[in-house]
Amino acid sequence: MSTRTHAAMVPTFAAAAVLLTLGLAAESELRGEDSAPRRPPNLVIIFADDMGYGDIASWGHPSIHTPHLDQMAAEGQKWTSFYVAASVCTPSRAGLMTGRLPIRSGMCSDTRRVLFPDSAGGLPDEEITIAEILSGRGYATACVGKWHLGHLPQYLPIRHGFDRYFGLPYSNDMDRVASSPPGRQAFLAPEISFWNVPLIRDAEIIERPADQTTLTKRYTEEAVRFIRESRGQPFFLYLAHTMPHVPLFRSPEFVGRSLRGLYGDVIEEIDWSVGQVLQTLREEGLAENTWVVFTSDNGPWLSYDEQGGSAGLLRNGKGSTWEGGMRVPCVMWWPGRIPAGSFVREMGSTLDILPTAAHLAGAEVPQDRVMDGFDLRAAMFGTGPSPRNHMFFYRGRQLYAVRLGPYKAHFITQEPYSANANRQVHEPPLLFHLEVDPGEHWDVASAHPEVIAEIRELVARHQAELQPGEPQLDKKITQR
Description:
Blueprint lengths: L12 H17 L12 E7 L18 H9 L1 E7 L5 H10 L3 H4 L24 H6 L4 E6 L18 E4 L17 H4 L10 E3 L2 E4 L7 H15 L5 E6 L20 H23 L6 E7 L26 H4 E7 L8 E8 L3 H9 L15 H5 L8 E6 L2 E7 L2 E7 L10 E10 L15 H17 L15
Parallel strand pairs: 1-7, 1-8, 2-10, 3-4, 3-7
Antiparallel strand pairs: 2-9, 4-5, 5-6, 8-9, 11-12, 12-13, 13-14
Helix pairs in contact: 2-8, 7-8
């Protein structure tokens, strides 16, 4: 079994040859058959919040109607082993934006799992985002929706490579008003006034509290406007929906639309939004030169019962390092380039989007730091396998599990939002064959000591080169 890893950082003649080949391939990607320069492709990332592996009809949900996502999958490609960098919002988004495990940027913590309104930290300035890489290649860039990588001015999207920003700086359940109903009662019949969360344009608060019943619709309108205004140059749109993170809100047009109730209404409005984006690309003649990725930031928030989603056949959900917490639905769409109706059953990750986008744009992947992403073009275009054969599963700053090939070893397990008393260290680690047992039911460690030894070797190499970044999530504002 291969154990390809980024730990080997010593340059060699062979490595230099590989980099030269990749550079030539990236250059040829931007040329047509007549070798004339071709406009770099656009990139659209649509990121749901807390949407589970089983929440899309074409992934098996029996009562949520998602015709636009289903059509996107039929015209594009489904990735069935696609992972995020973490099982909660802030570190997951940091991994997507930087192509690096969040522990490297300091965007994870063992005490505060995400950023809060009293947080003083955020994505460090020295981190390089997808937006910064593409902006350097002449792309127009926009972030629409939830950011959650720092709400102070120095951390907002416009300081990290985005030309414009419209959205919430953190989760929609933050800035809870003291007079709102206690506990979870506020979520049963949510009202806008229960949360004083701000809506920001660029760096200015334009509405507080944000009218959350209109967010999905307004995000969509903003995204469509950006696409139309940017059609004359390459562009990068990051559309990060606030929902289905609780509290759940939807437009009046979607009230009672779904058999699945409020949660289903929310998903069906997000599906409508996907349809609007894809239709705009078609109308503007941009579909054949735009790579669109739809996925989620982590698994479903199962503890919210009917207001949470479904991980399908996967175990557990948001907050955990079981498959249901970090394996998410992913659809990639690019008419004429990505084979219609195709499947990729090998591994991919949000960590891989940055290097893939960089190569497509003819840009360099940062060479002055360890990157955790891989170039997925061969798997996307059906010319070869995915280069990713391993995945590290962190909870905060601790490594809990590792997948290598079809096997996943759990060194530590813990319920998503339980006290440390429920934390279990496993020696030997639990081992599951995910192709046979994606629900992680049957521990096969005793039958495969050689696999565990190989995973331990991979972990040792990873930890030997790991340099954790300065912790950002533990910093608090002293006065507000």
